[in-house]
Amino acid sequence: MQGIRGLRHVIPAIALAFAPAPAFALDEALLPRNLSPWGMFVGADIIVKTVMVGLAIASLVTWTVWLAKTIELRRKGALALQRTRALEGNMTLADAAARTGDAHDAVAQLIQSCAREAELSGGVLDDGLQERVALRLERVEAAMSRQIARGTGVLATIGATAPFVGLFGTVWGIMSSFIGISESHTTSLAVVAPGIAEALLATALGLVAAIPAVVIYNHLVRGIANYRALLGDASAQLMLLVSRQRDHRGFRLARAAE
Length: 258
Description:
The protein is mainly α. The protein has nine helices and no strands. Helix 4 (46-87) runs parallel beside helix 9 and helix 5 (93-100) crosses helix 6. It is rod-shaped, with a radius of gyration of 36 Å.
């Protein structure tokens, strides 16, 4: 009787030892342990990896353009403001051209273009000269505006396309998850989780690349508009200078005729 009672305790223990493990325990064992961003990138499909690398490069380009254009706008804007204020003083067109020398900044090119037109006109200060000077200044302003805006178009492209590129990575990751479910014939979380995690990471990288690109682009557009306004002020000062010289010369000629 004591042997039978002992078997009653041994048989359940043996059956429990050979029984299959619960499904949730198996899932926990198969779940990937490293779900950090780097771990998800390493375990991602080659297509998803390509999307992530492309978005990371786009984000790097965005911040590089921001740094370069910010430094350029501050430097050129300060120089343009300095030269524009100098034009407000009592000087002639020849004095302004002599001060710029061989400089290649925007306002210096405006001054040199204006002086060149006056030289080609043989020193005749009339309405025709003012019209020709205005045309020259308009062309130089347009050229300088295109130059300062160079490189900002890529920000608009990144801001418009990065979310869709990230969405492509998301769709591809979810497709990979469904393919894994079909091949394993199971809906286990261990099969679904990695692909969905990679898909969400691609979406996040798309937003990380797009949002700063849009914000920086709008910021640079405002800075470029302010720079163009400075060039407009410089052109107006040059037109006033030419008109002032013409009036003074006309006044001297009138006095001489008397």
